[in-house]
Amino acid sequence: MLLTISTTHSPATDLGYLLHKNPDRTLTLTLPVGQGHVFYPEATPERCTVALLVEVDPVVLSRGRAGASGLPLEPYVNDRPYAASSFLSSAMREAFGTAMAGRSKERPELAAQALPFEVHLPALPSRGDVHLADRLFRPLGYQVTASTGLLDDTFPEWGPSPYLDLKLGGTVRLQDLLAHLYVLIPVLDDTKHYYVDEAEIDKLLRYGAGWLDTHPERELITRRFLKHRRALQRAAQAHFTEDDLEPKRPVVPSLNDQRLEAVKAALMASGAATVLDLGCGEGNLLARLLPERQFTRILGLDVSPRVLTRARENLRLDELPESYRNRLILTQGSLTYRDIRLRGFDAAALVEVIEHLDENRLWTLERVVFADARPGHVVVTTPNEEFNARWASLPAGDTRHADHRFEWTRVQFRNWAERVADEFGYGVNFQDIGEADEALGPPTQMAMFRREIP
Ligand code: SAH
């Protein structure tokens, strides 16, 4: 994938000082997915062009990938090497980080000044809408020329190309230009190639500073940049200015978010380096554990192959850098059978899992987890049955999910946890999750077990 930026500011070769890159040299960067090259196809006093070429290694990208489209060659043969995407944005940060921060050692006054620039992105995906590039860049003051052609002139029957050839012209500060491209390229592509977490909000706010707030497509930009993750969008939204057209609602994390955050905090506080997520489901907890360097080995286990497939997709395991991927194992198994793979871990989480087993079979899980796997810490969450009275739509006596075999009151949970702790040589503490009702208690209850007898 290719990006070129040209200027006719005189002397144009000052572009080299602004980017901290000597126009006479080619620089090669090592990226998580391949290589980046920075070079100058032209460098005269009248006109200077810098090019950033990113070569994605399709084999690196394909590792562990089943082929999202179901086509067997899809992991190897796809548009990722050519189409501008978040890979290009990441490479921009590697290549032009200093300029993106607005600094220039040799030409600080030029860095602060709007200069005439032309940008060319010869292959930019614009999923579903050829006018989107225009709606994104024009409000920022650019002249936008976006053209689409045939996918391949030799084979007109293949139809039109889904890619734009985009040219932008404008007089802007280089720092702003780079920020606009950094945010809007992945927005046009509308896929992201690594897991998105809270760090993405920081990037959006940092590079969106000064323009995103008032951009007419702010909603769409935020939604797509944050990969359609609602919780992140809400959190980002809270940072925008108050004189907003929409009424503001306070940002209250969902019960699910609160639960996962509480479990993650408990695991981190335990000091564990190796963790089990037992009954990991679609990987919501795993997604929060992965970015934490404290956890060097994470094993997610679930009985259902279907949810494990969903977990793999949600985590975009196939596209994560190796340093992430190597720390995680996702595997199928049942908590009602002894499993030697679960031994030797520092901590385990059972988040909303125990209630999915028949109450009279729960003893099998107890033996597997507390007697055989025997991690140093075990965190268990389960609904508080008493709180169900507060769910307006829940007829008395019903559980929250059809698949819950039981739901316990606070006393029932406490009795169970204390008996288990006693029987298997653990100590146990309890914590409320979610906003507690004075009489009924919290919506979710959590027990934290700590092994006392090795
Ligand atoms: N912990 C996840 C999922 C909770 S739903 C979350 O908080 O999002 C309960 C999960 O337990 C389901 O994914 C289900 O497949 C799994 N499960 C049920 N019985 C199991 C068993 N015997 N062994 C392993 N996993 C089981």
From TrEMBL:
Gene3D superfamilies: Hen1, N-terminal domain, Vaccinia Virus protein VP39. One of its GO terms (biological process) is RNA methylation. Its EC number is 2.1.1.386. Its cofactor is Mg(2+). Residues 276-368 form the Methyltransferase type domain. GO terms for molecular function: metal ion binding; RNA binding; small RNA 2'-O-methyltransferase activity. InterPro entries: 3'-RNA_MeTfrase_Hen1_bac, Hen1, Hen1_N, Hen1_N_sf, Methyltransf_12, SAM-dependent_MTases_sf. The keyword Transport does not apply. Residues 1-238 form the Hen1 N-terminal domain. The keyword Repeat does not apply. It catalyses: small RNA 3'-end nucleotide + S-adenosyl-L-methionine = small RNA 3'-end 2'-O-methylnucleotide + S-adenosyl-L-homocysteine + H(+). It is an enzyme of class 2 (transferase). Keywords: Magnesium, Metal-binding, Methyltransferase, Plasmid, RNA-binding, RNA-mediated gene silencing, S-adenosyl-L-methionine, Transferase. It comes from the Bacteria. NCBIfam families: bacter_Hen1. PANTHER family: HEN1, SMALL RNA 2'-O-METHYLTRANSFERASE. Belongs to the methyltransferase superfamily. HEN1 family. This is Small RNA 2'-O-methyltransferase. It comes from Deinococcus gobiensis (strain DSM 21396 / JCM 16679 / CGMCC 1.7299 / I-0).
